[in-house]
Design brief:
By secondary structure, the protein is mainly alpha-helical. Helices cover 74% and strands 0% of the residues.
């Protein structure tokens, strides 16, 4: 899971759209405009929260469901679990109600999370002696 978390963190070198919107949202005279580190802190919090709430459980469940099968089956199972968990977190924890915002956040999280899950499935497949086929 350390590899998947590191890959997930590296994907945030390209900031999410909501972070870019938040960075320029404060007017120039507002005292909070002088604290861009708050946006960086929220991005890190979002990354860690996604890793703990979605990526780790989906990687573990996907690996368990794909046991004794090929790497692509394991990866597909992990992505299916991640899709459901991501939707649940967005709907329950963040209370996203606007369909456009929901799809934007869900797609962003799934693209970033799928790269980390690919690294995790590849690592677990190598330890079992299988490949991603």
């Amino acid at each position: 899971m350390h590899l998947s978390g590191a890959i997930l963190l590296l994907t945030y070198l390209i900031p999410p759209v909501w972070a870019l919107d938040a960075y320029g949202a404060a007017p120039a005279g507002d005292p909070s405009a002088d604290a861009p580190f708050a946006v960086v802190a929220w991005v890190l919090f979002y990354c860690v929260g996604f890793h703990v709430l979605v990526q780790v459980p989906s990687g573990l469940v996907g690996t368990r469901l794909g046991r004794n099968r090929g790497g692509l089956i394991t990866y597909a199972a992990a992505l299916a679990v991640a899709g459901v968990l991501t939707a649940s977190v967005l709907l329950v924890a963040l209370r996203v109600e606007d369909a456009g915002v929901f799809m934007q956040l869900w797609a962003d999280a799934m693209v970033r999370g799928s790269l980390g899950l690919a690294g995790y499935v590849w690592t677990t497949g190598r330890s079992r002696g299988t490949t991603m086929t």
